[in-house]
Amino acid sequence: MADLRLRNARLWGTEGLSDVTIEDGRIADVDTASGEAETAGPDTVDLEGALVIPGLVDAHAHVDKTLFGGPWVPRTAGPGLAAAIEYGATERVKYGVPNPDYITALLTNMAVHGTTRTRSHVDIDPGLGIDAVHAVREAVERLEGRVDMQMVAFPQTGLLVSPGTEELMNEALAAGVEYVGGIDPGGFDGDAVKHLDVVFEMAERHGAGVDIHVHDGDNLGVHEFDLIIERTRALSMQGRVTISHAFALYDAAGAVRERLIEQLAENRISVTSVAPKKVLPLKELDSAGVRTGIGNDGVRDLWSPYGTGEMLERTLWFARNSGFSRDEDIELALDAATFGGAEITGAEDYGLSAGSKADLVAVPARNAAEAVMTHPTPTVVVKGGKVTARNGVLA
Ligand SMILES: [Zn+2]
């Protein structure tokens, strides 16, 4: 017997309305909506024509840093990356960050707005040790399976310039963190080759993937892309490496950009964007077959007062900063926020067809472009076949 039936669903990519039957956490059947009154049996929800998309994937988050639901903290850091890092590392002590209560509040807001999966970079440094890993785990447990979490051991205060960080990252990886992070290998950490050698060597030793922050742009950024591509190939890590922010792709023009995109595709290196002004060239990446994900980055933390954790809203920012106005292009942004992130984070059996895992979001919109432009609160969120939220409240 079905565990759940979603009636009158407007499945993304399908004409007309469907009835979706869910069994054992998966989509068992998709039928044309009968329109008949439900008589008896399984738990049934009438979606009344709402658009149904697969669970949103936040492919680049920093949930450990958040003050969501906590005090408003004035941001007084000086300009530039180094000043922001310094400010974050000293002020967090005063505000008790990482805090499982703030992380829980943010994950809750993400979950009720349709995020069912996220990859979060978690600060690892000598001041914190691996405390942030434990804080995120505690919050994820409190969410009781509503959001799948993948963590990246992230050397926010540097790897080479912050002695002791490498050992702590090894400790985090040994404790089950799935990805090795990195940050501006040349621009911040001072030695691109050495930084990347340490990162990839650590990944190889732990059988982990790599997801590295590269804000470095222009020639330095291009050089770092080449070093990452070279190491991905040498270690046969195709499909397990992500470059986050990837500003060099925005800065590079013509033949250089084309070559980088071609080599990313060849080595199945994915990219993620948090929708800044230097937004990634999504259409070029998509036509070359490079998977792109979208993430919320830091939300209401010591770095940024912006954000809510709501993925449809972030997708709107991405579309707007990309200059998209055609429905087809906006839909491509939503594809990155769903299927793109799912592939990058290795989600299995993701989608809307029979056999897929039942991670589904019902949005009061008539199509994908309208869902992104209006980014409404989902009426129903289903995770693993169970209704986990309704109208902005956990169920
Ligand atoms: Zn980041």
Automatic annotation (TrEMBL):
CDD domains: Bact_CD. Residues 43-85, 102-388 form the Amidohydrolase domain. It comes from the Bacteria. Signal peptide: none annotated. This is Amidohydrolase. It comes from Salininema proteolyticum.
